[in-house]
């Protein structure tokens, strides 16, 4: 190597080294920060905590609403769609805020559509729904939140399939199939109960009794019946008209309702054949596993 070549290499290293060092330091700080949050969370999670996880609009709030009635027992009568966060906090992608609920009586329920430290969860209910219904319901939810009534469902679905989320709204979300595979895998190494939305719709009582046993609860028959009754979509819609909904900031149907239809096949009439085919092509393996496709 000539002197000129040595100087060229040395100059290149001088330019490259500072950037590499800054990036290395940044990554090390991030790792230490995550490790500290992991330690803090491990110290404040209780072994009877219950986490409800699922893709948006998979029935997370619906299921949590009924479970909270069972968990809170006599105080369950005070729970409604507007104040449910007081009984079952939403911590989407913010696991660290669990530390703020140290005064909440056990067992606690947390809703999290974007877990960061799921390996620490002592018990998780993963609720899954037909992705055709999920994307349709999530589309209406996002239109409500943004007020963009001219947002074509075709472009919404394309964005969801490409990114797994709407980056400007909920960048922490992952694709329906990725989340499903993650929790199928977790169910093999930690306590996870997978619940299909459609099974909950068909027989709320049976699913709630099964989940109560999974969570170590012993609700009375009367309490199960109350949760089933109040979990009826007509009952929930009536309640939302009266008190509003937590997710919509207490609004009472100003641009639509949080509790829409609760149907399992609205996508057949509200989506074009092209959009349906795109969703089925993208999620075919997972849909077959859960019997959403023959």
Spell out the blueprint of helices and strands.
Blueprint: H1 3-44, E1 50-54, H2 60-72, H3 84-87, E2 109-111, E3 124-128, H4 131-146, H5 153-163, H6 176-186, E4 192-196, H7 197-202, H8 204-214, H9 221-230, H10 233-243, H11 267-270, H12 273-289
Parallel strand pairs: 1-2, 1-3, 3-4
Can you offer a commentary on this structure?
- By secondary structure, this protein is an alpha/beta fold.
- It folds into two domains: 1-44; 45-289, Rossmann fold (3-Layer(aba) Sandwich).
- 53% of the residues lie in helices and 6% in strands.
- The protein is built from twelve helices and four strands.
- It has a four-stranded parallel sheet, sandwiched between helices.
- The N and C termini lie far apart (67 Å).
- Mean pLDDT is 87; it is low at 248-255.
Strand arrangement, largest sheet?
Answer: 2-1-3-4
Give the CA-CA distance, first to last residue.
67 Å
In CATH terms, the superfamily of the largest domain is P-loop containing nucleotide triphosphate hydrolases
Q: Any idea what the shape is?
A: globular
What percent of the residues sit in helical stretches (DSSP H or I)?
40-55%
Order of helices and strands: HEHHEEHHHEHHHHHH
Mean pLDDT: 87
Please state the structural category.
alpha/beta
Quickly count the domains: 2
């Amino acid at each position: 190597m000539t002197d000129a070549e040595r100087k060229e290499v040395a100059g290149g290293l001088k330019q490259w080294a500072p950037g590499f060092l800054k990036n290395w330091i940044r990554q090390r700080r991030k790792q230490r920060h995550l490790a500290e949050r992991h330690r803090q969370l491990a110290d404040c999670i209780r072994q009877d905590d219950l986490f409800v996880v699922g893709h948006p609009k998979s029935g997370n709030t619906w299921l949590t609403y009924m479970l909270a009635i069972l968990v809170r027992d006599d105080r369950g009568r005070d729970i409604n769609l507007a104040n449910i966060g007081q009984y079952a906090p939403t911590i989407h992608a913010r696991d660290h805020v669990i530390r703020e609920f140290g005064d909440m009586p056990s067992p606690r329920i947390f809703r999290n559509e974007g877990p960061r430290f799921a390996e620490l969860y002592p018990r998780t209910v993963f609720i899954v729904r037909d992705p055709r219904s999920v994307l349709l319901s999530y589309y209406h939810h996002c239109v409500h939140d943004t007020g963009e009534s001219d947002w074509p469902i075709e472009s919404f679905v394309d964005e969801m399939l490409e990114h797994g989320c709407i980056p400007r709204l909920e960048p922490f979300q992952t694709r329906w199939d990725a989340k499903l595979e993650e929790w199928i895998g977790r169910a093999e190494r930690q306590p996870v109960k997978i619940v299909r939305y459609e099974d909950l719709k068909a027989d709320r009582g049976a699913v709630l009794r099964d989940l109560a046993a999974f969570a170590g609860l012993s609700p009375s028959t009367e309490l199960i019946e109350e949760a089933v009754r109040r979990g009826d979509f007509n009952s929930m819609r009536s309640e939302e008209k009266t008190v509003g909904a937590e997710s919509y900031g207490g609004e009472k149907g100003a641009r639509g309702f949080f509790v829409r239809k609760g149907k399992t096949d609205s996508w057949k009439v509200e989506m074009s054949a092209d959009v349906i085919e795109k969703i089925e092509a993208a999620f075919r393996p997972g849909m077959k596993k859960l019997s959403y496709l023959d």
